[in-house]
Design goal:
9 helices, JmjC_dom (chains A, B), Cupin_8 (chains A, B), homodimer, alpha+beta, 6-stranded mixed beta sheet, about 30% strand
Chain lengths: ~350, ~350
């Protein structure tokens, strides 16, 4: 396949369906409207005033409230040296990259929150356990918000498969990836900054396989060690960092021209009180800005997605090697290290 | 593109979504169920007992009722020598094919019905004007059925763009094509026999461009003349006849191997009282079996479709030339006479 056809696809999905920016609704949609205008079309939207009735909206921005409510809770705290977990870092042995997960430390909640609000120099703490943690580790907060998003549950015909709580500071980022869930993402304090790309743009993500590794943190030395998984396990992950370090921009641009020179990703700011509908299979990169309490707090609801014709089309598209229109001498196989079907190598959240 | 990837797509859409046969519902779905389980997934279904309340279900099978109700109506009767309209026939000048439309004759309804019920030797009559005819030519029948399908209208968020009546006999067929509408197809008398293929199977339809022609029928001589449109107009149409004449089978199989050797089309019989949801962009071929009155009668509702990511994926797929896996020497361009985008050359119904 030449790049020409796939570039037309990137353009056409924007032209016929997505437009230039993410739709904004000023109140919660009806289930039918949500299903017809967004889920069925695999199209994101932001909903304002959808969680105005949550007590958490006024309670959770106060660290003292949270620390009291969760005074005896042990929570899974994710620790990294720099805020990049589930991200690519230099391989410890080769001149290449590996996919690293955070060190996960069971921590009393008040201590965890302190580490987030007053970050020490050598580590970044993030409460982001994605295993339905809101209904397990944080069950003391359950009366502060809804256990599901009623209009979404009715539209999707089920209750959420997982509900997760996220508490972090400005240092934590989530690198580009996709989830095999319909995602309702409610921000309760601070802001989340998303970059979004539709599944049609998969070749622009430069998904490659990286060996899995994990940080191991020693409280005693205050140091992180990077440990490769044994036996080696490969994780397909996007190679693109949309915010390269100063001085690195040109190099990154030339390594990932389809990302940097193609259509701009949708930039979305989700503020406290707003909900983002992040459709299944959309690539997303997330940064955050803390609220007054010194942290960003969000709850997300993962609903099962439909494995339908859209999913089959996506796997087909991903199976095609991309051949540059500019340089037809690049062999087709170049961008297709392994010809894998999507569901054989998707990065499902650890549940 | 090699054929391997697209063949995997044909398989996967069946494996993850469509299964081996078309779903059957035993009563009308709720709007949300219809939208979530079928429209959003671009997946057909048959609904039994959905039009039990229509007076037409008992009234229309009697020719005398119809002829009385429409005694003073002039209707658009479609005449062909053989029952094949909007179909491929030998070109009058070259050793090739052209796309022929029926001769359309304004005819008093009782006379039209007679021609359908007692077909003369030299012509086949079919009432199938697809320009919202039910609400214009047949308005005397409007109290005999619903003006729209309420649960579909609520799901799709609009009323039908067109409602058409179809009255024909066993001699009339509709060749493989697709429509850019969501289609609710209600059979009131007799049966309709559909062959269905999902949009993912577009390469199996061998869509090529054929010069448009029209039959001209002379009542005096009782003969049809085939007239090419001038200036010449090309119509993209499927080259596949799924029911080749006896003796021609092997030749057709070898001309259209992707159709004949690929996954079987979904075969669906829609009986009187049943409704078929025929999703937008699905290829369909239709034959019919008359009811007791000597004719098949159906009403179909065309609703606007969403031009969303599914539509963009379809256009992308269609833009890719198919290259046989068996014979990589066939040039890619072979199956892609013109690199046209779908909406520039779709065959919209004449409205």
């Amino acid at each position: 396949m030449r790049g020409k056809e796939v570039e037309s696809l990137w353009e056409e999905v924007r032209e016929v369906s997505l437009g230039n920016s993410v739709d904004r609704l000023h109140s919660r949609p009806t289930p039918i409207q949500f299903l017809r205008d967004f889920v069925s079309q695999n199209k994101p939207c932001i909903i304002s005033n959808a969680i105005s009735h949550w007590p958490g909206l006024s309670l959770w921005p106060a660290p003292s409230y949270l620390s009291t409510a969760l005074s005896s809770s042990l929570v899974s705290l994710h620790l990294t040296p720099d805020g990049y977990a589930d991200a690519l870092v230099p391989h410890p042995l080769h001149p290449s990259l590996c996919f690293v997960s955070a060190h996960v430390q069971p921590t009393p909640f008040p201590q965890a929150l302190n580490l987030i609000c007053q970050p020490p120099n050598h580590l970044v703490a993030y409460l982001q356990q994605q295993n339905d943690c809101f209904r397990t580790e944080y069950r003391e907060l359950e009366s502060d918000c809804d256990g599901h998003i009623p209009w979404a549950s009715e539209a999707l015909g089920c209750l959420p498969e997982a509900v997760n709580l996220w508490i972090g500071n400005h240092l934590s980022q989530t690198s580009f990836h996709k989830d095999h869930y319909e995602n309702l993402y409610a921000v309760v304090s601070g802001e989340k900054h998303f970059l979004l790309l539709p599944p049609t743009d998969v070749h622009r993500m430069y998904i490659r396989e990286y060996p899995a590794a994990r940080y191991s943190y020693s409280e005693e030395s205050g140091e992180f060690r990077l440990e490769l998984e044994e036996p080696v396990r490969y994780v397909p992950w996007s190679s693109v960092n949309p915010y390269p370090a100063t001085g690195n921009e040109e190099q990154e641009r030339s390594k990932f021209p389809l990302y940097f020179n193609g259509p701009k990703p949708f930039e979305v700011t989700v503020k406290a009180g707003e909900v983002l509908y992040l459709p299944s299979m959309w690539f997303h990169h997330v940064r955050q800005r803390p609220g007054d309490g010194g942290y960003t707090i969000a709850v997300n609801y993962w609903y099962d997605m439909q494995f339908d014709i859209k999913y089959a089309y996506f796997n087909f598209l991903q199976s095609l090697p991309y051949q540059s229109t500019d340089d037809p001498t690049i062999p087709e196989s170049e961008w297709n290290l392994r010809n894998l079907r999507d569901h054989e190598n998707c990065c499902l959240p650890s549940t």
